[in-house]
Amino acid sequence: MPYINLGMNRDELQSILNELGLTQGEAATLLSVDERTVRRWFEDPSRIPGPANQALRAWLRLHRFGLAWKPEDLPIGEDDIEELSQQIALYRQHAIQLDMLLRKVERRGGPKTPWKVDLNAHEATLGHMTVGFYPLPNGGFSPSTYRRSDQHADIEQDQALLEDAYACIAKALANETRKRRSH
């Protein structure tokens, strides 16, 4: 696997793990690597592979935004290590994709129009458009449906609007999480 140095040094790596509340062992589990690998990264951070670097940075941005970025709990003594590894990889990929989408919307200056998000109904609406989502146990979400009542749904045509919907859903979930934590 090629190594891509994105400028992370030992102090930044430690700072990221501290802010995320991860031990080296927990980081290794979530990144699907051996704990010795993470220790080697501390010896030479330039050897952190691009995907691991990208995941760590995405997790940090989602964490700062108040969004779920990891499984709530990991099963102890999981017999099927391959299944556990696949589930962790899916969480990691989901976090990276959500982070990329949020950054894309942010670069555009944020959502062009505010979607009305109903967390209880698990949907966001904007005029004739509705986007459904599944709430995830860790506080995140996964998009589920998209429909229009005024015309045929066209994902390509509505791509920017859908991205805005996901950003509004993420913000609503983050606000709800902050509200629960403050009580």
Key traits:
6 helices; 2 domains; alpha+beta; single chain; four-stranded antiparallel sheet; 183 residues; 52% helix; elongated
Give your account of this protein's structure:
The protein folds into two domains: 10-107, no CATH class; 116-182, no CATH class. Helix 2 (24-31) crosses helix 3 (35-43), helix 4 (50-65) crosses helix 5 (81-107) and helix 5 crosses helix 6. The longest helix has 27 residues, at 81-107. The protein is an alpha+beta fold and 183 residues long. It contains six helices and four strands; from the N terminus they run αααααββββα. Mean pLDDT is 84; it is low at 1-5.
Layout of helices and strands:
Layout: H1 10-20, H2 24-31, H3 35-43, H4 50-65, H5 81-107, E1 116-118, E2 123-126, E3 129-135, E4 141-148, H6 159-182
Antiparallel strand pairs: 1-2, 2-3, 3-4
Helix pairs in contact: 1-4, 2-3, 4-5, 5-6
The succession of helices and strands, N to C, reads HHHHHEEEEH
The major sheet is characterized as: 4 strands, antiparallel
Which overall shape is indicated by the principal axes computed on the Cα atoms?
A: elongated
Side-by-side strand order of the widest sheet: 1-2-3-4
Assembly state here? single chain
In round numbers, the mean pLDDT is 84
> What count of helical segments does DSSP give?
6
**Alpha-beta content class:** alpha+beta
Helix content: 40-55%
Count of spatially separate domains: 2
The N- and C-terminal alpha carbons lie at a distance of: 46 Å
The amount of beta strand, in percent, is 5-15%
* Structural Rg: 18 Å
Uncertain segments are 1-5
Give the strand tally: 4
